[in-house]
Specification:
Strand content: under 5%
Helix content: 55-70%
Shape: flat
Structural class: mainly alpha
Low-confidence stretches: none
Distance between the termini: 65 Å
């Protein structure tokens, strides 16, 4: 019977396997039912079956899609909350210090978003690059990594121009980021 979540695509609990008693052999379920406390009015065997039928399994939990907001959505919500005057009036009046803190938090969120985008760009550049020169002379795991890159490049030989353009866009965006980041670190306020 399937026991993994992938094998059990309908998210139903796996069926309870009932063992048949043959002769004097004691099954695990009959031994367990003796160790449980006896409820008056029900047989120990019946109470164990009810307990097994209602026991918790990882499949009994509903699977919901988990989605987290992006940094852009967070900053937009933050800006909206800052711009809404009635929210500001309904709460305690914000001091200039609190407003400055809010703006600094927003700036930090934007910088973190830019850094995340740069990391994703670097990962995408690594994913789409071709093999290194003389990859066939490498040894060990590096050889296999570069051989896989070469095979992917040969497989997508029809799309070389679009891949080249895509990599050029990523490289130019990465250069812009490094120039902007370099200027912002050199010029503190």
């Amino acid at each position: 019977r399937p026991s993994s979540a992938k094998a059990n695509a309908c998210s139903q609990p796996p069926p309870v396997a009932r063992r048949l008693r043959s002769g004097n052999k004691k099954t695990a379920s009959s031994r367990q039912s003796r160790s449980r406390s006896y409820k008056s009015g029900t047989s120990p065997r019946a109470s164990f079956r009810e307990e097994v039928a209602h026991s918790w399994t990882p499949y009994s939990l509903p699977s919901t899609a988990i989605s987290s907001p992006t940094a852009h959505e967070i900053s937009e919500k933050f800006l909206q909350s800052l711009m809404e005057g009635d929210t500001r009036r309904s709460l305690v009046e914000m001091s200039p210090y609190q407003q400055e803190l809010a703006h600094l938090r927003l700036q930090r969120l934007r910088v973190e978003e830019e850094l995340l985008l740069e990391l994703k760009r670097q990962q995408e550049l690594e994913r789409t690059r071709g093999p290194k020169p003389k990859w066939y002379e490498m040894k060990g795991s590096q050889f296999h990594y570069e051989a896989r890159k070469n095979n992917e490049l040969l497989r997508t030989s029809k799309d070389w121009q679009s891949l080249f353009n895509y990599r050029q866009e990523l490289l130019s965006a990465s250069k812009e980021f490094s120039q902007n980041h370099q200027h912002s670190t050199v010029d503190p306020f």
